[in-house]
Amino acid sequence: MGNRESRGLTRVRLRHRGQELLLTEGTYLIGRDASCHILLDDAKVSRRHARINVRGEQVSIDDLGSMNGLYVNGVRLTGSQPLFDGDWLTAGSEELEVLIGDTARRRSAASTQDEFTPVPSSSEAETTRRISEPPDDPETTQKSRALEILASIADRAFDAGRVDDAEDLLKTTLLDMAQEVSLGHELEQDSLDFATSYALRLAQATGTARWFDFTVDLLRAQRAPCSQLVAANLRTTMKSLATVDHDRLTDYAKALRLSGVAQTASSATLVDELVHEALRRRGG
């Protein structure tokens, strides 16, 4: 293929465990099978897990029906989607960062590996390139790490003032969590903390009550105690909104009192205070 930069073509790399792998134009298979161009030694990775397509400035990825799923920026992929600079891919416990264009040039260093020569999709030629070092933190669950990645990317969008982008990144995961709770499943604490924190941040950034209502409904459905921190975040968000639905807060307080757990029921008083504040703001 020759030197990509000398031809003025977009530079595409995958960063994994401190190494950057250069991808020329072509198609690349990711998985555990010897025919894959990028081999990941992880039992949770399918033999043929995913496929990356590099076509000029267009980069995309396909999930090849992997058993444990492929995550892009913490959100499970179904089918195919474009990739952009800074995107994170998660397969099993393995993570790869996508570097496209000037960012790849800035980050490239002595650890950069030789340029890949893609094999045509129909070929079964083997590659000996293996990435088999043990995970840095084998105890970190894939779901928790996916949330960390999603939070990091959403934070960058918020900090850059790209609220619509942040909402697009977050809404699928947040709505999936709400659906899980509606089906009677209990969210893990880190998932609930993520949902309440970022839903309220969206409410504050957009100035609309939709994500505030989402948060209260989620807490009520889960009968999650209203901690001092949650109450403070709800109160701060209320101040950024023209009005909130005090009936939702009332229902949340009732659910806490009916929980049968003393500590949970006692936290209802914090929600009562929020109800009174909401009524004062309405002049009721």
Describe this structure in words.
The chain has 284 residues and is an alpha+beta fold. It folds into 2 domains: 5-131, Tumour Suppressor Smad4; 142-282. It contains 9 helices and 12 strands. The protein has a 6-stranded antiparallel beta sheet with strand order 2-1-11-10-7-8. Strands 9-6-5-3-4-12 form a 6-stranded mixed beta sheet, with no helix packed on it. A hairpin with a 2-residue loop joins strand 5 (50-55) and strand 6. The radius of gyration is 23 Å and the shape is elongated. The model is unreliable at 1-8 and 104-140 (pLDDT under 50).
The coarse silhouette is elongated
Question: Kindly state the mean pLDDT as a whole number?
Answer: 82
Could you give the order of strands across the largest sheet? 2-1-11-10-7-8
Helix content: 40-55%
Q: What is the count of structural domains? A: 2
Radius of gyration from CA coordinates? 23 Å
Element pattern in H and E: EEEEEEEEEEEHEHHHHHHHH
The main pleated sheet reads as: 6 strands, antiparallel
> Uncertain runs with pLDDT below 50, 5 residues or more?
1-8, 104-140
Number of strands: 12
Helix count, per DSSP?
A: 9
Calculate the terminal CA-CA distance, rounded to whole Å. Answer: 72 Å
Q: What would you call the structural class?
A: alpha+beta
β content, as a range?
15-25%
